[in-house]
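Memo to structure team: turn this sequence into structure tokens by end of day. - J.P.
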Amino acid sequence: MPRVRSPADGHVAAFSSGGIAFGGGVEPELVAPGVGIATADAGRASDGSGLYATVTGTSAAAAIVAGDAALLAQARPSLGAAELRGALAGSAVPVANGTAVPSVTVQGAGRVDTAAAAAASLAVEPAVLAFSRVSGDRWQGVRTITVHNLGAKPLDVHFALTVDGGGATSIGFAAQPARLRLVPGGQRDVAIVTSAKAGIPPRGSGVLLVAADGAPSARVPWAVTVQPTAERLIGSLQLSNRAFAPSSTAPAVLAFQAGSATSGPSGESVDPVGTLDLELWTPDGKRLGVLARLRDLLPGRYAFGLTGRGPNGKTLAPGRYVLRLRARPVDARDGAAASTAQTAFRIVP
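Reply from structure team:
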């Protein structure tokens, strides 16, 4: 949980992490105080009184948010986990130092405000929106949000899109339906459709405002990122030995490149791997199973030891085999196909 220096000075700490997350979404979802936080310390002073210290970092900020969530759950016991999360993030207060307002990729929806969350009439699920896999000026992305009426009166809900830094945006926006009426305790799914305006590649971030007359708006950070120019997520396979005997102490080593990091006219893009399966096949196309499954791989060079054992853990019979690597992107729901690469090897007695 990135952190602000203090609720009073309205700065996000310079060492705080933020940006576009692994799956293309906005991180953080919100911020909390995490610099110079007073806390109890171990031991006692010479007079027997308790010791105190200050802490700085994400652990302190996360603890504050956890406490806020506990207070909110106590104040509103009827809310489920998703509604609590939506109320906390949606009611966050934007961090600003004068006229300078950090982008949502720095502060998320803003600084946690438990009192505002306790009084919130609207909660939105998910708490952040990511529109990735942008493929040019004809791109269109759709995400579904669920809007909850947490209050005791009907709400007429509508939507607006704000952009970090103000001004015009290269993103077209529409909500379907554009307006809706929610009864107390009701909820409704809404499709948020974004698209590229003609001739302008989409890229940006901001806040989706879910508003209702007579109720505070819920803030949902959003981001659009560009499509990496590289189309393959797996490649450069190298096998140290293509013929080897089964061995747990001297395995053959398969090295490969996973993911991609590219730079182009639209900026720099990082394309990680969501799931990587190492599958064992026979030369005639029979799938024997999965030797290993790796998740959440940042772009880089990886290695895997082949001990000569199959998916069931038993020693492979002498003969020829095919090792197929199948890499799926983190945002496979956008229709991006898996990348595959393969290499052959032989087990000898």
